[in-house]
Amino acid sequence: MSSNESLNKLQQRLNLSRRSFLKGTATGAGALAAGGLTEMKYGKEAQAFAYEPYPKDNELDTVVTSCAHNCGSRHMLVAHKWKDVIVRLSTDDGSYQKNGHFGKDTMEEPQLRACLRGRSYRQRIYSAERLLYPMLRVGERGEGKFKRVSWDEALNFVVKKMNHIKSTYGPTAILDQSYAGASYGVLHKSDQIEGLLGRFLGMFGCRTNSWSVPSYEATTASSKWTYGTIQDGSEDDTFAESKLMIMWGWNPAYTFHGGNTVMYMRMAKQRGCKFVLIDPQYTDSAAVYDAWWIPIKPNTDAAMMAGMAHYIFSNNLQDQAFIDKFVQGMDAGTMPGWGKNSANGQENFKDYILGTYDGQPKTPEWASKICGVPAKDIIKLADMYATTKPAALKASWGPGRNAYGEQYSRMAAALQSMTGNIGIIGGCAEGVGKGWHAEAVAYPYDQYANIWFQAIKSDRWAHCVLNYPNVKREEVGLWPRQDATDGQIPNIKAIFWQGSDWLNQLTNINKDLAAIKMLELVVCMDSTITPSGIWADVLLPVSTHFERHDTALPWYKGHYYIHRPKVIEPMGESKTDIQIFTELAYRIGGDVFGKAYNPKASRGYFNNNDAVDEAYLREWWETKVMAHQHIEMTWNEFKQHGVYKVKMDKPLVGFRDQIEKGIPFETASGKIEILSSELANIADWKKTKYGYHIPSIPKWIEPWESLNSPKTKDFPFHLISPHPRWRTHSIFNNCSWLRETYEQEVTVNASDAKRLGLKNGDTVEVWNDRGKVVVPVYVTERCMPGVLVLHEGVWMDLDENGVDRSGNPDFLTLDEPSPAGSFAYNTVLCNIQKTKLAHRPGWDQLSTSRAHVFRRDY
Amino acid sequence: MSTKKDVKKIREAVKRHKRETYIPVQPDMQMGFVHHNVDCIGCRACEIACKDKNGLAPGPRFRRVQYIEGGTYPDVFAYKVNMSCNHCAEPACLPTCPTGAIFKRKKDGIVDIDSTLCIGCRRCEAACPYGAPQYDPSEIIVKKCNMCVDEIDAGRKPYCVMACMMRVLDIGPIEKIWDSSLQTVALGASDKVSRQVKNMANIELTKPSIGFVAHSKGKLK
Ligand code: SF4
Ligand code: SF4
Ligand code: SF4
Question: What is the ipTM of this complex?
């Protein structure tokens, strides 16, 4: 093999599908790599590798960095690079931290090992779907035809449109649909509420905010009412201390919310902890922890919990001392004096459960009829939970993504507190589950951080656009304002996406598609083309976090910071999101807006951001991390190691201080509010962001669709759409490594499949009155009869008849949020049948079979 | 994509191969894998780490996490059997290779394929009872796990082992794995290692260097 040939081969390999990239666009990098490679020495023994020449890690530069997407975690990635090309990625091996060494992996400072998605990042960076240049739409909206333009042309187009829209339609005309999809760092942050886009549009003076968070609004609302904070989590090492762990709809083996969570739970198992799973599916988490699986009808969790509460109360198994001391509204004895005179606060939880108010005791038998779990199992579980300590009832987010999902989250909090499992190690008050608090903001943060002129429930935007101005405030969950504009329906004419693929991810996509055609401007800023981007007017290429300077913070569990240097130069003409907003600010409002948006930058920032970004990060580290958190490592030392792991003097347990030291909870009463003071005092629901009545205590409320509703006559299956393991929502759907290990498919119980004549691998259509999708079927005994499982986030692919051939469940979901704002992603009835229509697994048409699944009868 | 081979080199290798009758290499020490079938969450981070390290396109998979499930609703079970190449004591692949591209290292018993000698005849693929050799159509050769020899030689562990989020995959001297004495978090205090589990070809065929903590339903009676 001549050296030229082998060189070509290596270049092709390093860039995988984007083979022309080095040769074509980045001649600089290509030339460097070419010049360098001839210098590389290969010994004879190297001839054994999967490809030749094979660069070994020790011959490459090592750069510590991390993942950056919104999976709920944040783990270390280590780039091994040759000149400007990342050859491969590894992860934490214990050697990078201060006083680290290869293999160091302790309880106190565990390795931060990346999951399969993190490990496939190279396919994302170098993917054929990467956006490398600004693009303007040339065809119809949604047709997917774009032309390459200069930054000048793209930005001027956006500026002109923004100015026109604001002056014509007023300050609510631009809808902020930023999300945490691509940029989760302390500096470059795409975020729904207080991200870079929100600050930019707020300062510009035209922004409608989307206030409800798709992932977890039920539990957010619940934790704020119950505890006064969403910081209700313990760090995951405390799970190792549990004696009983009830995984309620929780599948950490799929979600990796905290990559080490699953490992700590394994420790618990080794120490004799018992596990229970309440879920329509027998998940991998159940298998690993040998859990007692209790299949449950979707959307009926709050009823089962009420049945458990009934058993606990009627057998007097509750921790009454804990209730008396720490809880408001659990029973008659803990009711506040003002309750009886309030609008909404006469009832206490215990009397509701015992049936004092409505004559219906919420017995296990009553619950069983609703949730499909035998009463004896409800009793057994309630007894286990009430008599084992410490016991963790981990109420995950998924069952909350339902009609009245907040009642499930609230009911879980009631069980957690009636058993006194809050504030103790091995117990659990989650909920939201956020534990350690990181210093999260290095970008300018000031009075402009979150200015909006109206705010709506996020999945009601299409309803608002399609029906404007005949929309009632409660229909869109309008957030109250303290000025004359309170109650005014926003006149949305434009959407801005930053790190967000919401067209693919919100509910009832067909309705969204109808609405988006009515807009005058759709801007998409992302690193790759996305299903949403196809519907944009302008595509602005954002460099990935490998191509800019930042620091990563844990998202959910864990306590550490990971430095993210610029590992490689930005690909193509991509820019960072702050560069783009800063430049737009200068073009809209000259020096005044430009300087105000990005105080440390000057006009040249669009072309050179290194020094300014370094200054922001250093300032953040020194004035926040070092000063507030008393971390002594200097910024330079941190950069040198690439990671800082915080050592805690004792395990972090949510609400430990409240329980041990009697510090008041952050609620109005200072107690755990099973009776919410906020809700109890609401008289006019229409004027609240909720729009509709919410009981002040947790209650079972029948969802609008479930296996118990009459609608099952036409649509006999209940569809749930959990998070896949092989994508983060829609990110990574284009990575062939991930798609060859997992395929989009709908899970069907074996007896249902038999009745319908379906075999494993058959292609089916799943439909209801909102849409239709095509997908292969996975037939298994691991799923409850009557339930279908279809994972969210696959890239939609519409055929000429409007049928989605990718199998995206959000063509079937309903854009009707729960009163508290949670998305009803899992409240879906539908039907299923064999089809002749073809499934399209990915835009590149690559189709590989499902990995080995063996079904064995024993 | 065409792969130019050094035909002269291959001819020499074939001659040498014909000259020497195959006597299995007796390694100074045999390295092998250990995997916990129950505690593995089946995440396949190990698989992806391997694909990335070895620069593999979709298709060839050196490491394969097999999902096994059974029972009848609601009494079901599931576990994983994770295998790459087992670096067998008596590799079935090795003698089938017409060019002698497959070799076993004396030092640690690692079985490897010299990619410059492989002509892509796919005989080893057919011979291996565990599906380890993987044909790569883009290169027209067969490739397989080499236990990340470069990492081992550098004093580290293979990419798949270092990727495991659960720490249930490890390597070590195979005798220690088999008698459950290997110091590794992959094994719990009371875990016993089996050489053979269900859904796996008979180990007598090649004496694979691998041990598993079996699921109760995966144990051989
Ligand atoms: S597992 Fe297969 S490829 Fe590996 S050494 Fe054994 S026979 Fe050869
Ligand atoms: S040892 Fe290396 S080559 Fe073998 S499966 Fe693991 S990562 Fe792949
Ligand atoms: S990385 Fe570990 S836990 Fe995940 S599939 Fe591989 S062996 Fe199993």
Answer: 0.93
